[in-house]
Task: inverse folding
């Protein structure tokens, strides 16, 4: 039995949030590569290489556990991970249309609700969790979190409207496409938490082998493998159609040192994506009987830090003071929700 520590769990979710909110920043450093080429490399590191390497290092009898895991857990986690794969693609493209801040707010906000409520409905325990000691406080914190998410979303919409007013062109159509992709990404991203829940028997096997807080690394590779299969199939076909796969070769005319830097930046992006769920797994175990709150806590952390990243990347320049003030207040509400959830989890 792994001892719970909600404060530690909250801190671990925060670290995961930092990693997740900045994992696409390295794309800005890649030059002469298409989005698909970057995505193929980051996907390999995010969903195959890093889960395998870290799983092997941290989980006792890692491959034996995967070999002997129940088929229902394997296939359930894999298929739902594949469903999430479509969401991850939509998310990545949406960022290019409407920016980091708004994409993260809407997609992750939707994901926080879907990923928290659906597992409780599917696997049971919705009433029991919220009526036990500290349950009402945690529920209040989750509601406060959603208020903060809504405020950030409102600020994001105001920002887009103000920026569009100062420019000409197809801003409205770009915004519409970005919003549609973001909604799809949000719904399907919530499915990833359900995928992890389906894989819980695999984590339980790792716990029985003495993996402790690292038990979640045993099931993660199954969910991410499903995501990877969908992504690599899509982008390989797209790369063949658009003839961008040559960007991996000398025939592209890209200098060798530039190619190496692109590989490093893309690998870093994938590694950072993986570490969001590495720390999610650690934080999830640490939350004890309030593990159900992990998803909304983790997603709220992600939104909070994505806005910090957006400010650093100067996405919030040339906007009205009232909009910026709304953003600051919303971020403070999110911080308050973190404190409430952590406090309630200690009951």
Result:
């Amino acid at each position: 039995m792994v001892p719970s520590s909600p404060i530690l769990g909250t801190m671990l979710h925060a670290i995961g949030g930092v990693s997740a909110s900045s994992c696409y920043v390295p794309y800005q450093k890649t030059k002469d590569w298409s989005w698909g080429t970057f995505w193929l490399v980051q996907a390999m590191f995010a969903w195959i290489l890093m889960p395998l390497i870290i799983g092997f290092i941290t989980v006792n009898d890692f491959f034996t556990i995967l070999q002997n895991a129940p088929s229902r857990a394997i296939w359930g986690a894999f298929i739902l991970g594949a469903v999430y794969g479509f969401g991850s693609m939509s998310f990545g493209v949406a960022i290019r249309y409407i920016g980091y801040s708004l994409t993260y707010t809407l997609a992750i906000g939707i994901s926080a609700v879907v990923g928290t409520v659906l597992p409780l409905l599917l696997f049971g325990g919705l009433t029991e969790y919220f009526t036990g000691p500290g349950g009402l406080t945690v529920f209040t914190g989750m509601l406060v979190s959603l208020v903060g998410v809504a405020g950030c979303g409102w600020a994001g919409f105001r920002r887009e409207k103000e920026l569009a007013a100062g420019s000409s062109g197809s801003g409205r159509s770009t915004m519409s496409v970005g919003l549609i992709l973001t909604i799809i990404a949000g719904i399907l991203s919530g499915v990833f938490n359900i995928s992890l829940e389906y894989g819980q028997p695999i984590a339980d096997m790792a716990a029985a082998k003495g993996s402790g807080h690292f038990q979640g690394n045993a099931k993660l590779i199954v969910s991410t493998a499903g995501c990877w299969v969908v992504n690599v199939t899509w982008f390989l076909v797209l790369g063949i159609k658009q003839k961008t796969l040559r960007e991996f070769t000398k025939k592209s005319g890209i200098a060798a040192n530039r190619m190496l830097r692109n590989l490093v930046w893309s690998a870093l992006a994938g590694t950072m994506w993986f570490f969001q769920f590495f720390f999610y797994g650690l934080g999830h175990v640490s939350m004890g009987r309030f593990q159900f709150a992990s998803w909304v806590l983790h997603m709220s952390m992600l939104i909070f830090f994505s806005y910090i990243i957006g400010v650093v990347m100067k996405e919030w320049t040339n906007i009205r003071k009232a909009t910026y003030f709304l953003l600051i207040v919303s971020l403070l509400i999110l911080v308050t929700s973190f404190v409430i959830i952590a406090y309630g989890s200690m009951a």
